[in-house]
Amino acid sequence: MKLNVKFWYYILIDIMCFAVSFFAAALLRFDMSYGEAMGFLLSASPVYYAVLAVSVFGFGFFFGTYRTLYVNISFRDVLRQLKLVACSVILAYVCHHFFRYAISMSITCMFGFLYFFTTLAVRCVEHVYKMLVLAKKASGAEVSRVLVVGAGHAGSMLIHMLTTRPDMCLLPVAVVDDDNAKQNMTISGIRVLGKTRDITKIAKDCRADEIIIAIPSATSVQLKAIFENCKGCEIPVKSFGSLMDFHEFMSGSRKSLKNLSIEDLLFRDSVKPDMSAVSDYINGKSVLVTGGAGSIGSEICRQVLEYGCRYLVIMDINENGLFFLQNDLLASYPQERFCVRVGSVRDKVRMDYLFKSHKFDIVFHAAAHKHVPLMEDNVFEAVKNNVFGTKNTIECCIENGTEKFVLISTDKAVNPTNIMGATKRAAELLVQRYNGRGCELAAVRFGNVLGSNGSVIPIFRRQIEAGGPVTVTHRNIMRYFMTIPEAVSLVLNAGVSARGGEVFVLDMGEPVGIYDLACNMIELAGLKLDRDIKIEFTGLRPGEKMFEELKLDNEQCTRTAHDKIFIMHAATPTDKVDGDIENLDELLSRDSSEEELRSAIFDTISIDFEESARHGSDISEFSEIK
């Protein structure tokens, strides 16, 4: 074992502790008589000293006392010193009783007691010095008074860290916990003053500047209940508790104390479905993901690589998005397992080249123009990309023997009131029309995904950080939300279950009121609605519904083996699709107006535009899959 400077430092310290403890034990034995104590020490047998020295330092080596860095003294360190002293005293007793060595057991026992405390004390000096230095550095900084919610393991760890790291400038002043047994108890000197229902009163009484929830096992329902009790405080609410949070906090980073987010309240309990069937199916397959640089497409790429695809081709027209995704994937997967290709699904020649260069087993078609208001002003581009891009990809799958094609669709394709939804519904009809020609074609329909490009939550967050106002189109507007990983997991499961021609729908849970969402996000930031941040109603944007639907009026819903995946059944005629697509192609090729193209696309999906505009406008009509 290589011995470093710290090793010799601790040896020297323990030699000094040995001498001081032995002398102090002799003084105690002879009623603090210096002369009698010195007489005993000078007359004691060298064997006595040798037995104690060998046992103390020998057991010190054995138990690893000199291989430990004492940045903080833990309970394990205390137990180790206690075992060392106990073993030394027992060895001294054995030598005295069985081998008849002249050993004073009264002095030995007092020596063990004193040696235990002196060695621990000197090992705390480094930590105390560090605390004093950090406190001096932090003395000029502004200190926030913290109310901790949760007196369990995470809460105890947080309070201990806050009380021993003054440089963090966070001072715990009180704890709340719903466990009756913990009431009026203290953690590192901080008292448990009540339950979560008392948060508002306790926060005001203790003049807390922020609240930290340290309950990592809390469900979204429990967090919502705690948050409701925090609303009256008008101070920021943060969360702490994961292993990563602890490691970041140990390094002195306040980033581990994250603002309690709307994602925690709405999506904390999302459950990843059983992915064994997905793993079995995708393992060893060659996969193409179009639109792979987007929010959904990039997550599909990550998951198919995780589940063992043989080779992945990621295609997108977004060069920057592909560049960042490639760098991200290279951190986890070898370059030999995937490649990125710049290109558009509107380019049939480029698509043909890709399909001939790689024999794809599965294609996930996520490429689409998705922003509703933007597509209202760019009808031609929406039709080219969402309709003919899908048609090109499907034709390439059929021509090159691809096993399965999965279209990523949207709830906006149901009774669409906008050009984006209409084009995605036309893409669903293409899936049903072309199915049965050598490739299993299916579509998966779902609503908004949390954190996707253009999602309302990051927009609200930026507006709040800028000081407002927060813009909401209508007070009663509602939307479905799902996390990206959960949505993609269900998409992959639906794709594996597909046998051709299905339109799968994902159970999006309960719809969320966008106005309520904005109010909660403002309060989570510790701000007061109308006092600190205002909400402005801007009116529905072109083509926007009050609420989205997940099934057509004539569709019947059946469950699959997965609780959150349904299949929509409808007697939808697709005979006219070929003629309608030819008509759209002709309108694109000549100098036609956007209104002509808009009318044609709605005719393609057999929906009267005026009648369709009625859907989603009356909140009383809202219905959901159960």
Overview of this protein structure:
- With 626 residues, this protein is an alpha/beta fold.
- It folds into 3 domains: 5-135, no CATH class; 146-260, Rossmann fold; 276-448 and 482-509 and 553-621, Rossmann fold, CATH 3.40.50.
- The protein is 48% helix and 14% strand.
- The chain contains 23 helices and 22 strands.
- The strands form 5 sheets. The protein has a 9-stranded mixed sheet, with helices on both faces. A 7-stranded mixed sheet has the order 3-4-2-1-5-6-7, with helices on both faces.
- Strand 9 (311-316), helix 13 (319-330) and strand 10 form a beta-alpha-beta unit.
- Helix 3 packs antiparallel against helix 4 (75-98) and helix 12 crosses helix 19 (484-497).
- Residues 611-626 have low confidence and may be disordered.
- Counting helices, strands and paired strands, the structural category is alpha/beta
Instruction: Compute the number of helices.
Output: 23
Tell me the number of strands: 22
| Low confidence ranges | 611-626
Going across the major beta sheet, what is the strand order? 10-9-8-11-12-13-18-22-21
Q: State the separation between the terminal residues, measured CA to CA.
A: 66 Å
Number of domains in the coordinates?
A: 3
Largest sheet: 9 strands, mixed
Provide the CATH top-level class of the largest domain.
Answer: Alpha Beta
Radius of gyration equals 35 Å
Oligomeric state: single chain
Can you say what the CATH homologous superfamily of the largest domain is? NAD(P)-binding Rossmann-like Domain
* Dominant shape: elongated
Using the coordinates shown, work out and report the CATH topology of the largest domain. Answer: Rossmann fold
What average pLDDT do the residues reach? Answer: 81
- Residues in helix, %: 40-55%
Q: What's the CATH architecture of the largest domain?
A: 3-Layer(aba) Sandwich
Beta-strand proportion: 5-15%
